[in-house]
Structure formats: C-alpha cells, structure tokens
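Please review this one:
***
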Amino acid sequence: MIKATYPLKRSAWAVFLYRGRQVCSYLLRNSNLGDKERMVELLARRYMTEPENIVVDIEFRN
C-alpha cells in the first residue's frame, strides 16, 4: 500500500476574464460561492459592458 504523507492540497479559484484578459481572481470557499454573481456585476460596471461579457473560470491551484 502506498501512503502519502503530504497529500496534494489544491484550492479552487474563481478567475474573471474580460476580452481574454484576467481582470480579477479570488479564492473560492463555501462562504463566498454566491459572491461570483456580485463580482460579475461589479466588473461589468467597471468595464462598462454587459455582465454576459465577463467570463468566470474555475482554476485549481496548488
């Protein structure tokens, strides 16, 4: 049996893209999963575009 003493810990990040560029990212936790929609609205206002133009991607990082 193989035993891992240091299991790989990966965290999920919400990455926000506008026109193919990363404009924001933050660490996802259970408490802030609903914040994605609010962040999309804020970024859409900042870049003066529609919320549909902001792409949310989930990345897993070590």
Notes: The chain has one domain: 11-61. The first strand starts at residue 11 and ends at 18.
